[in-house]
What we know:
Chain A is an alpha+beta fold. Chain A is built from 7 helices and 9 strands; from the N terminus they run E-E-H-E-E-E-H-H-E-H-E-E-H-E-H-H.
Amino acid sequence: MxxxxxxLIIDGKEIFAKPTDTxxxxxxxxxxxxxxxxxxxxxxxxxxxxxxxxxxxxNPKLMTSCTTPVSNNMEIITNSPKLIKYRKQIIELLLAxxxxxxxxxxANGSCELQExxxxxxxxxxxxxxxxxxxxxxMSHERFVLDHNRCILCTRCIRVCDEIEGVHTLDIKRRGKxxxxxxxxxxxxxxSYSCTSCGKCSAVCxxxxxxxxxxxxxxxxxxxxxxxxxxxxRR
Amino acid sequence: MIVLAKVxxxxxxxxxxxxxxxxxxxxxxxxxxxxxxxxxVYSPIADVKEFPENVDITFIEGAVANEExxxxxxxIRERTKLLIAxxxxxxxxxxxxxxxxFQDSVKEVLEKAYIETVTYNPQYPVQVPKLLEKAYSIxxxxxxxxxxxxxxxxxxxxxxxxxxxxxxxxxSIEEKFKYG
Lengths: 234, 180
Ligand code: SF4
Ligand code: SF4
Ligand code: SF4
Ligand code: FES
């Protein structure tokens, strides 16, 4: 019979978890905070932003805690100077990749990237910025898709696919050229599959998908996927 | 009686909206305290034509958008011990650098501001410093010693930073500022 429970150590604290748990879940369940960005409870982990990296003893690589399952006798460090340095670098790179001028952004004040930058003391960046400009898709009567703010976390894609069940959104190209697309790369207003449910705008961590004419603080609902999946399970 | 030499402070206004200077002035009565310990040797609110030598602390508001500012900033760096980027335009470039995402940004900006949106006698400005191809944050041009983010930074934050430096300490602004 396989083990039903594993024992591991996170930041010196002995904890128990289910073998199916990720390191992140085990940490959260035991009151240990690990910073995340692409992860959102209720959606399949994506492992893209790498903000949640942790050190695992005996493993030279840093592991993304949102996708790595626990195993017996694992020893994990979530908050070393090295990890903090990398997390700061990730935030700086995200801020440099697209045009993040918070003072003129709809998300100013309710943005998860901005919040993380403040929290990690990113008071400036030395990364030279990429000034490429993307056209906005404002064709939908209720929503705007602004690629200039997108951090490619794929939360919108996952919520549309896994929770709303229509998979209107996806991604095209690779690397820094990646872009969120609607259906087969059409204007949002031309989409047959979109139900206009607004879930994508509710979970976007930045100001890349938002509801026209409403402050982001009113339309953001990070807890939506968790809320829905928990009720489905019952 | 021992008289301590006053710390020479300069404040500079590059391409910014003056909001950071307003915030500086918003230190209100604390400015009186400060004035006992500092000497303002160059500032938009002081009538000094040339940037002086041997400045202890210089606060810079605004991004670098034209040739004149570019050369002035190089000179300031040479003549300043501690250079502080004050506010988001100085720290990141903020809205001033937004034009960098246009191909031929100088042409586009001038056309928009002086021709397209002008109804009476539209014409390009003359006898003003030439815009640079791109706009820059301060640290893209010279070395910056300290950053005070904010649009604008609060008067309290500015006061905290300057007081700490006057006391000979390096301020720690972590958890005291909001990015952007
Ligand atoms: S998305 Fe967030 S970090 Fe980017 S400009 Fe807007 S508020 Fe700033
Ligand atoms: S509004 Fe709903 S259906 Fe349309 S793209 Fe967003 S999540 Fe998908
Ligand atoms: S639009 Fe928003 S939710 Fe979608 S990938 Fe970009 S940042 Fe993430
Ligand atoms: S939160 Fe784990 S990789 Fe983004």
